[in-house]
Amino acid sequence: MNISKTKILYTNDYSIFKTQQGNRDLLCSDIKRVEKKILENNLLCYHPILVSKDYFVIDGQHRLEVAKRNNLDIYFIIMDSDSCLKTTQSINTTGKPWTVKDFLKCYVSLEVESYIEFNNILNKFKFLTISQLIDIAAIRNNKSKSENFKDGTMVLCDLDTINENLNGLNNYTNTTLKIAKNTHFQRFIVKLNKRGIKFDHERMVKKIDANTDIVKRIPSDPYIYSDVLGDIYNHKLSMKNKVNFNLRKIK
Q1: Cβ(208)–Cβ(172) under 8 Å?
Q2: Confidence category of residue 231, pLDDT binned at 50, 70, 90
Q3: How far apart are the first and last CA of the chain?
Q4: According to the per-residue pLDDT averaged within each range, which of 12-26, 93-107, 231-245 is highest?
Q5: 3-class state of residue 134 by DSSP
Q6: Statement: residue 7 has pLDDT above 80
Q7: In this structure, are strands 49-51 and 155-156 parallel, antiparallel, or unpaired?
Q8: Order of strands across the sheet that contains 57-59
Q9: Whether 147 contacts 177, CB under 8 Å
Q10: Nearest to 190 by CA among 162, 221, 217, 230
Q11: H or E segment at 65?
């Protein structure tokens, strides 16, 4: 058994600590939860916060806030590094993981242009989740779209393509099944646009609402969506007005 050389310091001079831009917001619910535990049994001396050499809080901002509110000594370890958002994310994800919403807020606060634009799109098309919009709007680089989003290197498709896909989906927000929120239907619309297949969205909306029992049983596959919805859409149309929804050749 060896003795660690890491020093644990303590203070009640909270002014020395700094908030790191891009870190997660303090949540009232988390503060109350942490405060309840600390006031029941104060173990702050056994759970020091981590700060950088320049005293930016890397991990433990909720514990620090509870200490401030209750005039308690806060215990801390100074890491042998300057403040670094990547370090903060890495340490935090071993505890309470960062969500995609946390990453989005982080990069918007750091004024990363693609994330600001992404957030504007998300606010405009409120039926989308963040993960769905990543799938629709982000370009896959050397990593998965999700990994690029989290590490701050997300690149968006051109806005014309994004708007074409989202305006198309927006037609389906009021269907009985709320199908615009369905990830596989979203991929179906995106693939149709990629293929350049044009059709009457108003007709498709009516057909979906008239065949909800069939539509809600479609397996989770955009290619099967193309088969089933194609048949529904083309029913009773003359041959010259039928639309070929075949997506099988799209990779």
Answers
A1: yes
A2: very high
A3: 58
A4: 231-245
A5: helix
A6: yes
A7: unpaired
A8: 9-11, 74-78, 49-51, 57-59
A9: no
A10: 162
A11: helix 61-70
